Amino acid sequence: MSFSCIFYPTPILFTTESLCRRILEFAANIKATFEPVVQLSLYPRSQISISVQVLQSDGSLLQAAINATTLALIDAGVPMTDYICAITCALHDNTPLLDVNSLEESDLPNLTVGVLPRSGKISLATLETQLSVERLPEILKLTGEAAKALHVEMMGAVKARTERLARAMGAIASDRSGGGHGDVEMEG
Amino acid sequence: MEWRGIEQGFLIWRPKPETTARKERGHHVVQRFVEESSLSSQFSTTNGPAEFEGESVRLGRRHNPPVLAIFSLLFYGAYASADLSADELILTLPPERQSRPELLSEHNFRADGRRPNELRALSLFISPHAQSDGSATVTHGLTSVMVTVHGPHEAPRSKASQLHDRGLLSVQVDVPGWSGASGSGQRRGRNDK
Hints:
heterodimer, A: alpha+beta, globular, B: alpha+beta, 3-stranded antiparallel β-sheet, 3 helices, 27% strand
């Protein structure tokens, strides 16, 4: 069973149907992005619950949500074939803009691409507005490069986290073998 | 005088009748333009016909000239120039009141000072939420999202939530009203209290 209850300072108001639909679509996008990458066949009859909480929004929300979901799944130890790095790209007079803020997002046609950086495959490409087809290969190439940069950052974060865990576990192990240095604090 | 674009903050008023469909579409665009430039309360008192063509707006005076709108634009510091031979009035808003800011300057800088290919400040924080099995907070500039993962755990035995050959992903999204996500905080139904 899954139960979630989050207390916010103000109640969440799903006042309009369109907002509700947009949130459902957002969730469906995230689900569709991760289904081919997460090795779900290892877990028959079970469920992995992903809960996305938007703390602040200034454009490129799907990008941030997908990147955070990748890291959270890795942190949970769920087996995945690859990272997914998402990046939003907008087009302004033939100039592609990466990682758009809300100002640019509302005015320009934009495309969110979820890239598997090791294989270079694309797991998600969503477009809410119109974009000319001739520009698409160039944008996909650019987002692929940006995703590689993001991949490096994400790998660094995962590595740092794992190193901290390993250090803490090593300290505990040496403690048990007779060191006796007291409690081990894990920062972060 | 040629038509001027919305982006440059021009309103062109020309008393020339046009077809109804275009008129309505144009009126919508004028409304949007005026809403964006914080003139909506003044402008809503008029319902003068307006026409839209390409990127320009012209206000006609076939039925009801939008005199109030013009005066309110002047009140907001617009400077006007009239071409009497063409029988049109061009209103120009000062740059700080124009509807849209420049997204990419001529020196290739974006509105927030980034280059086109530059990403915002990125921070990745793994496991901020110790109670869940896995969690991460990702911040791109002012966009911040926290994701928590629970599981894999046994799926509820109802309906299609159990798959016999593989697991199931369930995604739940919370967008609180204060997060600033477009449409969640500002735009509410008209009858909403």
